[in-house]
Specification:
3 strands
């Protein structure tokens, strides 16, 4: 019986070991392929030209001036957008204040018994003779 258990264990270990070796080999091959590709890539910038730029060239100065102009334009646009955001925030705060005033008015009218609002959104206005009339709502 003990021999039988041992052979089952060996049978299960072999496929697992083989799969691990195949996966390791595949990962290794991918790493080698990426390394070879990086070494053979002709689109990379040579180190010599990257570390030795042409200082003070007139073309460089024109490019720098263009970029500074673009930065100034972006900063002006950012200030414009910030102003618009501030204005929108102010309008939002005003709208919130108005909504709070309307809610206070509706609550006061309900407390005084002038109006009743049902759960489905219908509004009933109390008349002087004790009759109710419905305004708006679902129905």
């Amino acid at each position: 019986m003990a021999l039988n258990v041992g052979t089952n264990r060996t049978r299960k270990q072999f496929p697992a070991l083989a799969a691990a070796m195949v996966m390791s080999l595949a990962v290794g091959l991918v790493m080698v392929a990426l390394g070879v590709n990086a070494l053979a890539n002709s689109n990379s910038v040579p180190l010599k030209s990257a570390s030795n730029p042409n200082p003070g060239g007139s073309g460089d100065q024109a490019t720098i001036q263009q970029m500074q102009n673009q930065i100034s334009q972006y900063q002006a646009r950012e200030q414009q957008y910030q102003g618009e955001l501030d204005q929108a925030a102010q309008q939002l705060n005003q709208a919130k204040a108005q909504i709070q005033q309307y809610q206070s008015l509706i609550n006061a009218l309900q407390d005084a018994g002038v109006i009743q609002i049902t759960q489905d959104g219908r509004v009933f206005i109390s008349g002087g003779s004790g009759s109710n009339s419905s305004v708006g709502g679902g129905g």
